[in-house]
């Protein structure tokens, strides 16, 4: 059972099971500053029992940890996003190391490689990625991966520096690449992109991959689903994302929630009460 009081916002359901887990929600984003508490109440009402909030840079470490300390059902991940490494340095990695040793983070993330944005520095991205994989291994933590047009390069790095698995966020690779991630102990994140009829490859992956390899995510406020296209993505959308997956796979909503929640708990070692 979740407990809390005072300024805490309870988002963990104690009256219904199964509950959903959002494995990727940027709850600390400025887009949520005006209504964060209200959105969490809505998430609770929608059946979302836990959310994983990944940092993207050192400045975000404190914000994410503060949310986890004051909000039940929020689980922090700490890392430096590949698109933020241009402003990062060794001191940021040292700070990450210290915070990971304190044991609050459930994963190292959001980390990885992004070879999509023009002008990216592949060498710097890979250096920070490898350094953070080593930190994850040192602290025995899974990782939350950002992978964009760099599937094979990320897989090669994971084979060189083995970690305890994790989640390949917003997965958009091939079946062969999916199998490689699964073999390395990873779950694959599916969210808003899966809800568009035109996302044929992603919908096919979500339909045909083993169900025990899939976790759900919103990536809010980013990657809004089809019904919120052009607007802000919010945590409550995870409910309908789960329903889309149930429809694609021809399974009951309850089966999808039970499976994806169990997968998230297993890969991130989350408690049973969320």
Overview of this structure, please?
The protein has 274 residues and is of the alpha/beta class. Helix content is 40%, strand content 16%. It has an 8-stranded parallel β-sheet, sandwiched between helices. The protein has a two-stranded parallel sheet with strand order 1-4. α3 (90-101) links the parallel β5 (74-78) and β6 (107-114). α3 runs parallel beside α4 (122-139). The protein is globular.
Contiguous uncertain segments of 5+ residues: 1-16
Number of helical runs?
Answer: 9
Overall average pLDDT: 93
Order of helices and strands: EEHEHEEHEHEHEHEHEHH
Strand content: 15-25%
Main sheet?
8 strands, parallel
Helix/strand-derived class? alpha/beta
Helical percent range?
25-40%
Q: Please tally the β strands and state the result.
A: 10
Distance between the termini: 8 Å
Q: Rounded to an integer, what's the Rg over CA atoms?
A: 17 Å
- Across the major sheet, the strand order is 2-3-5-6-7-8-9-10
Shape: globular
Short recap of the structure:
This protein is α/β, with parallel strands linked by helices and 274 residues long. It has helices at 36-45, 58-70, 90-101, 122-139, 151-160, 175-183, 200-208, 238-249, 253-268, and strands at residues 9-10, 20-22, 48-54, 71-72, 74-78, 107-114, 143-148, 166-169, 186-190, 214-216.
Key descriptive features of the protein:
274 residues; alpha/beta; 8-stranded parallel β-sheet; two-stranded parallel ribbon; 9 helices; 40% helix
Secondary-structure topology with pairs:
Layout lengths: L8 E2 L9 E3 L13 H10 L2 E7 L3 H13 E2 L1 E5 L11 H12 L5 E8 L7 H18 L3 E6 L2 H10 L5 E4 L5 H9 L2 E5 L9 H9 L5 E3 L21 H12 L3 H16 L6
Parallel strand pairs: 1-4, 2-3, 3-5, 5-6, 6-7, 7-8, 8-9, 9-10
Helix pairs in contact: 3-4, 8-9
